[in-house]
Amino acid sequence: MARILITSAIPYINGIKHLGNLVGSQLPADLFARFNRAMGHEVMFICATDEHGTPAELAAAKAGKPVEDYCAEMHQVQSELAKGFRLSFDHFGRSSSQRNHKLTQHFAGKLAENGLIAEVSEKQVFSIDDNRFLPDRYITGTCPNCGYEAARGDQCENCTKQLDPTDLIDPRSSISGSTNLEVRETKHLYLKQRALRDKLEAWIDSKTDWPILTTSIAKKWLNDGDGLQDRGITRDLYWGIPVRKGDQPWPGMEGKVFYVWFDAPIEYIACTAEWADANGKTDADWERWWRTDKGAADVTYYQFMGKDNVPFHTLSFPATILGSGEPWKLVDYLKSFNYLNYDGGQFSTSQGRGVFMDQALSILPADYWRWWLLSHAPESADSEFTWENFQASVNKDLADVLGNLVSRVTKFAVSKFGNQVPAGGEFGPLETALIADLGARIADYTAHMQAMEVRKAAAELRAIWVIGNEYLQSAAPWSVVKTDPAQAQAIIRLALNLIRVYAVLSAPFIPDASEAMLKAMGTADRSWPHDVPAAMRALPAGHEFSVPENLFRKITDEERADWQARFSGIRS
Ligand SMILES: [Zn+2]
């Protein structure tokens, strides 16, 4: 039994995520967590909401709520949606937790002790009417690059150029609209990433099994232009983790908070501590996942994220950990995803374009979405959601291939032999061939799942469903029953066992359908069919089963057209 730590990139708090976000980290991480539990490994699967920074403050102001209340509410909303999609986190935490406050301050203190923090005086825009500094999105003005008049202090949305608030032409406060601004001196902390460059490069070079996509992104940031830069880790904001040096005050930094990019990844660790708190565990219980001096030496750590998050996870967060000089667990394997596009364009949170998690669940259960998204995961390249493809995939793979097999076999069995696994006949050449074929395919499927090859795994699972249908087609129990009832019983005995095996294999992709299949088969035996001949006899003659409700329904052309129209424009 291995110990597997899995983290999904943590979703930002300001709103409901779309399906592109879901398939870029949380959903494939869940697939991998479920698979590893099924393998009998000890799994810790962690996710949280990313709650600090100016977007949260501004969204709360727009909603007319204190930012603490806004974040608490949105965390609840995201938590419910995660449950709706059957994301099996061991804990879904919050980056605003006291655990993260303490750990973030701890890391900053250690980095300072090791000479890796610089205090830098810089000029920032101060709003006299608002009586505060205006970092990032708190300031709006005309882009010096393209002339767009509503560019934000951190980036121009029109031309995507990264900006500094002092770059803007005709700047104004995003809070009050005031132009009564001046540039003032303020002091900030910088993490000296340049000093850690060689250590980071040596660590990345040691990861010979990482995908090219991952290492090439990391290397680009390390080496391009002037190379890796020192980065500000504090902000003049109200909402965030107060700047402290461990448990001591940080003179000169009063009233400032850590910048969200610094505290967000530390939440992976803090969230595991939150898990311990929520489950009556001790510090030792979470530390054995994260501290190599306290039991985590045998943990393998996997991270899941969209490709835009790779630099943070290969450079910034490791810089924090390596710089601390403490034996914290570093990532072993990083699985990154390209983008999912939507019906000829992009998903867009700001424009409300595409299908959002709440909308998806309001029209179809989680399994339909899980299957399509995972079987079309944007791994080697971007992929695209279209309603035609979604309808075709659901109707064919789920309804025709899997659902129909389960329905046909159980109904026929009950009508001819009653609700117990029939005892007659022996397995013949067709059954032996199917078992051999299944053995090879299940081994391939298991290997793809282990390697986090999501699309290949989905394709193999679909092929495993298909060969069951082909077997039934050839074995034809509905004809055989007329001439050789004992042989028909043997066919059905195998087919009922096949349903249990399908339930076990399919559980990481479609957990609800899997549960329904196991319940209908009257079993809680979830053992992975490493030994296929034995698995095909797991439900013995005389074992009771029932006919399940229809597992999957088809999507009609009218529904498809209706949804296509409904989700084409701006989210209301
Ligand atoms: Zn611009």
UniProtKB/TrEMBL annotation:
Motif ('HIGH' region): 11-21
Location, primary (coarse class): cytoplasm
Positions of short motif 'KMSKS' region: 346-350
Record note on cofactor: Binds 1 zinc ion per subunit.
Binding sites annotated in the UniProt record for ATP: 349
Cofactor(s) it depends on: Zn(2+)
Positions of Zn(2+) binding: 143, 146, 156, 159
Keywords, ordered alphabetically: Aminoacyl-tRNA synthetase, ATP-binding, Cytoplasm, Ligase, Metal-binding, Nucleotide-binding, Protein biosynthesis, Zinc
Catalytic activity: tRNA(Met) + L-methionine + ATP = L-methionyl-tRNA(Met) + AMP + diphosphate
Pfam families: Anticodon_3 (PF19303), tRNA-synt_1g (PF09334)
EC number: 6.1.1.10
Domain Methionyl-tRNA synthetase anticodon-binding: 421-571
Subcellular localization(s) per the UniProt record: Cytoplasm
Domain Methionyl/Leucyl tRNA synthetase, residue spans: 4-409
An example Gene Ontology molecular-function term: methionine-tRNA ligase activity
InterPro entries per the UniProt record, alphabetical: Anticodon_Met, Met-tRNA_ligase_1, Met-tRNA_synth, Methionyl/Leucyl_tRNA_Synth, MetRS_core, MetRS_Zn, Rossmann-like_a/b/a_fold, tRNAsynth_Ia_anticodon-bd
PANTHER family tied to this protein: METHIONINE--TRNA LIGASE (PTHR45765), METHIONINE--TRNA LIGASE, CYTOPLASMIC (PTHR45765:SF1)
UniProt-listed NCBIfam families: metG
Family under the similarity heading: Belongs to the class-I aminoacyl-tRNA synthetase family. MetG type 1 subfamily.
Assembly mode: Monomer.
Protein role: Is required not only for elongation of protein synthesis but also for the initiation of all mRNA translation through initiator tRNA(fMet) aminoacylation.
Annotated protein name in UniProt: Methionine--tRNA ligase
